[in-house]
Design a protein that fits this description.
mainly alpha, Glutathione_S-Trfase, 11 helices, 205 residues, Glutaredoxin, Glutathione S-transferase Yfyf (Class Pi), Chain A, domain 2, two-stranded antiparallel ribbon
Length: 205
Amino acid sequence: GPSNSEGAGKVSLLKKVPALKDGDFTLAECTAILLYLSRKYNTPDHWYPSDIQQRARVDEYLSWHHTNIRANAPKTMWIKVLIPLFTGQPLPSEKLQEVMEGLSTSLKQFEERFLQDKAFIIGSEISLADLVAIVELMQPVGVGCDIFEDRPRLREWRRRVEDAVGKELFFQAHEMILNIKELSNIQIDPQLKEQLAPVLMKMLK
């Protein structure tokens, strides 16, 4: 049901997705959920290393990610698909250009500060940091903004992430994002449009 429903409130106090319900325990926020699952199920060490300094590197990236990559990459979907879908009006191209400029700055920092000359963000093996990064960076790709095309270092990193996860699982996980343009063909309930349009516009400010 809708994320603001009474049932959603029982799973997440924030009434937002993603949310996890594990028995009587509930948890919100994607990063917290990933860390919880990695600890509960004793996942291979490379995902969230037991080495205190390597783990700190994962934490460092996750902290930076929210106000940089995550602050910019998803906005490409809102501008090109979601806001026009709910408002019935396309946004001016200048708005997308502004977001892409901010994303370009974040990508430059990502490559120079975090990726550097390493195979993955914290070294030679994939970690939760790479998973959190890639899922955001595939969102511009889904709406036709291929941020990997002119960035060979970033493109090779994406290829390594695909290989580490497994190509079939990688594309299965990103199937909805890569087909997001198909949403423009669906009919939205007018009342839902009225509720969500101002929320989406506010997210771009």
